[in-house]
Amino acid sequence: MRIEMGPSAARHGPLSALVGHLELSVQGCRAELLASTLATLGPFLEDELSADVQPMKIRLDNITITLKDDGPKIYPTAPQPQPATFTIDQVVLERSDDGLFRIKGGAGPDSAGGAVVCLEKPDSSCSVQPQQSTSPSQSPSLGSQLLEAQLALSQALTDRERLLLEVRKYDPMFDL
Known about the structure:
Blueprint: E1 2-4, H1 14-19, E2 21-27, E3 30-34, H2 35-48, E4 56-61, E5 63-68, E6 84-88, E7 91-95, E8 101-105, E9 116-119, H3 139-170
Parallel strand pairs: 2-4, 3-5
Antiparallel strand pairs: 1-2, 4-7, 5-6, 7-8, 8-9
C-alpha cells in the first residue's frame, strides 16, 4: 500500500496533489465470505463514505473469493446451496480526478490491453473499449476461460432442471 500526498502526488493528476493518491496491490489472497456479512456491509459503508473524490489505483492479482449462502432455506426440501467462487486475475481498479471508477484487465499492471468499464451514476452513459488484439500467448488463457464458461453453463442447466423438478413436486401442471 502506498499513499502519496502533496506535490509528489501531482504526477497522478491535479486533484491528487490536493487530496492525495492511494495505490494498493493485493496478490495471492483467498477469502471466504458469508452472504449475510456482505448484506450488512452496505449500510455501514453508506455512512462512512466521503463525498470527496479520492484518486486511487487498486491492483488485484490471483484473488479467490468464495461466497457462501448462510441464509435460511425457503423450502425445507430445497438442496443445500453451493458456494460461489470468484477468481480475479490481473485486474486494475482506478479512480481518477473525474471521480469515475475504471476496471481494466490485462496481462500486466500497466498493460494497455483489455476492456475498460466505467462505473458512474446510473443515469449517465458509459463506454466500453474492446481489446485491440489477441496474441498467441493469450490463447490458452482464452481457451481456459471458454472451458470455465461452458462448465458454468452446464451447471446452471443442471440447477434449472433440479429446480423445475422441485416446483413440479408442488404443482405437477407447471410448465415453462
